[in-house]
Amino acid sequence: MFTDEIGTAPDAVLIGRLQREYILPAAAPARLDGLGGNLAYAAAAFASWGGQAGLVSRVNADFPVDRLARLKELGFKLDGIHPVTDPLDSRFFVAYGEGNKPNYDNPITHFAERQLPFPPELFGYQPRQKYCSKTDYLSDSFRVTDMPRPFLETKIAHICPIDFISHKILPSVLKGGMIQTLTMRACTCYMDPIFWENIRGLITDLTAFMMTDVQALKLFQGRSVDLWEIAEHLAGYGPEAVLMQTEDGTTRLYDRLGQKRWILPAYRARIIDPTGMLDAFDGGFLAGFQQTHEPLEAALYGNISAAIAGEGSGPYFLLECLPGLKEMRMQVLRQQIIAA
Q: What is the CATH number of domain 12-339?
């Protein structure tokens, strides 16, 4: 049974993780105990294009939900944010080195190397295990009762990386309502040959499936190294569009309905903090698809959102964009699209 909150349906539904970020950029001030998590970046990107959404996430009991106040002021609905009593570590740490290479381990060492005081809240921190169970729920795995009933009356939704169980359950839950457009970004933990037999059922109901080229190649290890072949194979399971990002921000888009292949280069930007760029892409893509119903146009929205996210730090930086800047950059980037 779904929760019985009374209210109107939001424009869209976004489901993912909320975290408390401790980030050490390579060439910018540290960002300590700030709002983060893939849901926050996707939501901020969606908001930056004028969208409003209902947010769904499981957080620990002391998570500072008030940090979402800015999104609430913009019309976002927080009925789906559920504090849980089970152990749930919402901390996230990353230190970027040369070339913005991320380091997720040993935060004490990185703070010491940069001669920064170590935040006491990070004592005992351990990176999240990159493991997906096919059967076991985690504390932040989605439960059917997490979804407010009014959220199912909207027509568009995005699922951020959570875990295999959540991604297995959510498409059927969302499609059981009025949602017609459903996008999802892959979790690294199940983009693995041991999940090969599970992938078809996972993505059949999706409109668009997002991943990195590294994830795609890992899943197809021993089967294919041709990214277009991989994209076409995955699209054959059901998604109208399959999108892959490379490390430099280039997006490959396979449009199954149009039988077209597109390459969208990253918008050239000085990247300060890469955290959340892929999630910002997803929020921008969802906004673009909602407005245009065209995967290629939506990918342009996504690439612009990703670049803006990287030019600053934290999800709310996406909301500081000068009026007209996104549209101007889209016109520039549109001229660089390559039909592959």
A: 3.40.1190.20
